Amino acid sequence: MKKVFKLKNLGCANCASKMEREINKLNGVKNATINFITQKLTFDSEEQNLDETTEAIKKIVKKIEPNCSLQVT
Amino acid sequence: MSEFKKTIIRLAIGLLVLIAALSLPLSAYFKLAIFLAAYLISGGDVLLRAVKNISHGQIFDENFLMCIATIGAFFVGEYPEAVAVMLFYQTGELFQDYAVNRSRKSITELMDIRPDYANVKRNNELITVDPEEVAIDEIIVVKAGEKIPLDGKVIEGYSMVDTSALTGESVPRELSVGDDALSGCININGLLTIKVSKEFGESTVAKILDLVENASSKKAKAENFITKFARYYTPIVVIAAALLAVIPPLVLRDAAFQDWIYRALLFLVVSCPCALVISIPLGFFGGIGGASKSGILIKGSNYLEALAEAEIIVFDKTGTLTKGTFKVSEIHPVDISESELLEMTAYAESYSNHPISLSLKKAYASDIDNTRITDVEEIPGHGVKAVVDSKTVFAGNIKLMKSIGIDCRNNDAAGTIVHVAIGGKYAGCVIISDEIKEDAAAAVNKLKAEGINKTVMLTGDSKAVGFKVSSQLGLDEVYAELLPSDKVSEVEKLLAQKSGKGKLVFVGDGINDAPVLSRSDIGIAMGGLGSDAAIEAADVVIMNDELTKIATSISISKKTLRIVKQNIIFALGIKGIVLAMSAFGLANMWEAVFSDVGVSVIAILNSARALNVKKL
């Protein structure tokens, strides 16, 4: 299933590519890409652990760029 | 107050305190205190972020490097410089944020084709809802000046609509009852009532937006290179800095520790790859956005990059180079006048709706008087027999003529030949051929001007037709009488001929050439607007039918790559020079900060040019 999250206050392109790398390492996430320009994270996810995955992504985002927050749409 | 203004005021205060520290006659300790205050005012947030990031295990980020560099400057006694460099860095960051936001805004504006609302008729009332809440078969009303929110069929009204957001074409289209209305178009004058045929998620506008936004996930080689480069660049420069601070003072006899630490600090400032990491994807995204504005959908940065290397262009004939509609091109009468032959043929064929019959009627151009025709009989696979003005007329192919015992020959005309016999006597033939698109020849010339080595046409039609079309357009090669599966093998042969780096582009209508589109390096579908199949199958979709846009897409690609290359060379060049100068003690912190944030700002502004595809 394809999911799209918005990344609010994503300000650093290098951080975006770091996040992208980390998120792709998560279980249950495939083909994660972050578009720095539209500030959107897109990935394929397994339905059943979506909540867990979302939490893990939130943590990664906070860790790499503290000002940036994930908005679940 | 906006974040932006707050930062400006904070930096201004920092600057004033710095000036105060420099100009007031105070004792050394007091001065240091004021310098520290100025430093905290201007760079406190950077320090805080650096500390936070370290606690998260993120070292080597920009904030951390800047802190080390400036705190280092304090320790080697360069107080004013430490504060000034922090100010300069913060100002640069501010400019960088501004430039990024501006580009983001202009890109989102460019892609602002998403309709915000739909006026839907429910229980005889017109209510405004989100387009996503409208179901199939509901009735929507679009007023003048509004965007058509969903795809559907016009059931009432007449209007001109502006399709430029989708096709880049400024000529408005006419919509009346029975026509398909496409979402994303703007209704110019009339009132349209539309029966919705697709949910919003499946509508034209949603699909286009989705494609453009996701295009950046298919990364170009240049982007992958930068991502890899960035991963190694920072650690390498930081290690180099550490070595620079320690080794020379130990090895060289009269080297001062302070001096080499300062040089190492400069390395740290230069070590951020941000200029490249931001500007390269921005350039590609800008190129894709600009192309979509002119009606060219490019489905990935990789395709945008590959278009610049196009070497062979292969066209499908029918529906791509030609209109796929038929027209009377030649009339060869025998013993009667041209107009008489055309009239009799048009009458004999008037009961049929076959494209050939329609083209005959169109060429005849007068109304058909049905009372003159009797006893119409269609002979499948042969043609038609009819009595016109009480004379028996046979019109059809050579098999029909043979079956009624009339001797005639096919000439080698390029097209479909309709032989005619009137009253048992051969009366000549009419040749009907497909029309070449008006801009086809211009498109081929433009492609050659863009440096395409070879233009090829594939067709299932006869050799005569194929060669005629290709000589009219000046194509280099033709392969005719191909079955659909032959087209794939021809493309494979051509793929083997091209040079290693060159790319093969296939241009088709996207409807029945999906296998060829996917086999070629880049598949371009023409006339994608309203055709989901074409949008699905191709890598690049030209929304309207303009063949010249193939050349446009190549020049957009070349321009984008030029910008990307400029940025790579510029950013790496400046960083390289500053690193070299720092190592030899020729640079100061100002130059180092410029090579970080200054270069970023310039590269971002340069990338923003990719958006502008008007001036090509």
TrEMBL record, chain A:
Any Pfam family hit: HMA
| Membrane-spanning intervals of the chain | none
HMA domain ranges (all copies) = 1-69
UniProt GO MF annotations: metal ion binding
Q: What is this protein called?
A: Heavy-metal-associated domain-containing protein
* Native source organism of the sequence: Ruminiclostridium sufflavum DSM 19573
Automatic annotation (TrEMBL), chain B:
Q: Family, per the entry?
A: Belongs to the cation transport ATPase (P-type) (TC 3.A.3) family. Type IB subfamily.
Q: Which NCBIfam families match?
A: ATPase-IB2_Cd, ATPase-IB_hvy, ATPase_P-type
Q: How does it sit in the membrane?
A: Multi-pass membrane protein
Q: Where are the transmembrane segments?
A: 7-26, 232-252, 264-285, 568-587
Primary localisation category: membrane
Task: Tell me what reaction this enzyme catalyses.
Answer: Cd(2+)(in) + ATP + H2O = Cd(2+)(out) + ADP + phosphate + H(+); Zn(2+)(in) + ATP + H2O = Zn(2+)(out) + ADP + phosphate + H(+)
The name under which this protein is listed is Cd2+/Zn2+-exporting ATPase
Q: Which CDD domains match?
A: P-type_ATPase-Cd_Zn_Co_like
PROSITE patterns xref list? ATPASE_E1_E2 (PS00154)
Which cellular component terms (GO) are annotated to the entry? plasma membrane
Answer whether the UniProt record assigns the keyword Nucleus to this protein: no
What sequence ranges are listed for the domain P-type ATPase A?
Answer: 114-213
Single GO MF descriptor: P-type zinc transporter activity
Q: Which Pfam families match?
A: E1-E2_ATPase, Hydrolase
